[in-house]
Amino acid sequence: MKRASMGTIIGITFFVLLVFPFHAGSGEQTTAEGIPPQVVADYIHAIIQADRTLYTTHVVERMEAHQVVTSQEYWKQTKSLPLPAQMLLLSGLNVEQQGLGLQFRLASLHPIYEKNGPTTDFEKAGLAAVLEDPSRPYSGIIQRGTQKFFKAVYADHAVSVSCINCHNGHVLSYKKDYKLGDVMGGIVISFPVQ
Ligand code: HEC
Whose CA is nearest to atom 16 of ligand 1? Predict the structure, then answer.
C-alpha cells in the first residue's frame, strides 16, 4: 500500500516536473509562435474553394450533363440542387452554428441580395481592395465586443460564362455587365485570435 502510494507520488512528481512542462511548453508555442492567422485564412480559403469547385464539377455539372437534376436558386421548392453560391453560404451558416467563432460567406459590392453586401467598413474596404488588386487578400484584425478576430477578403472571379450569364440575367441584379474574369465579389473569412 505504502509502496503503491509512494509510486503514485513519484509518478505524479515525474509527470509534473517532466511531462507537464513539456506539454505546457508546446501549448505556449502553439499560441505564441503558432501558425500566422493569414496562413490559417489561406488554408480555410483553399478548402472552401476546393469544395465549391468539386461540388460544381462533380455534382452540379455532372448531374446536369446526365439530365438527372439541375441546380436552381429555388432548389427546395423545385427539388433540385442548391447553386454552388448557395452551397457555400449554407456551409458558412453550418460552421457558424458549430460555435467555433469561425465565419465565412460570399459577398459583393454589387450583390444580387442586399444581405450579401458589405456589412462593415472593413468589408467595404476589403471588397474594394480585391477589386483593385485581386492577387492578394485584404486582411486585418477587427474587434467584436471583447474578442479580436482576424478577417480576410479573397477575390471571387467570374471563372465561367455561367457566372456572368446568371448574374447579368438575374432579375434582382442591378449590375448587368459582368465579363469573364471579372472580380464579382469576395469570400470573407473571419475567426477569433488572441
Ligand atoms: C444560376 C445562377 C448563378 C450562377 C451560375 C452563379 N451565381 Fe453567384 N449567385 C447567384 C445567386 C442567386 C446568389 C445569391 C444566393 C443567396 O444569397 O441565396 C449568388 C451569390 C453570389 C455572390 C454573393 C453576392 C451576391 O451577388 O449576392 C457572389 C460573389 C457570386 N454569386 C459569384 C459567383 C461566381 C464567381 C460564379 C461562377 C463561378 C457564380 N456566382 C455563379 C446565382 C448564380
Answer: 86
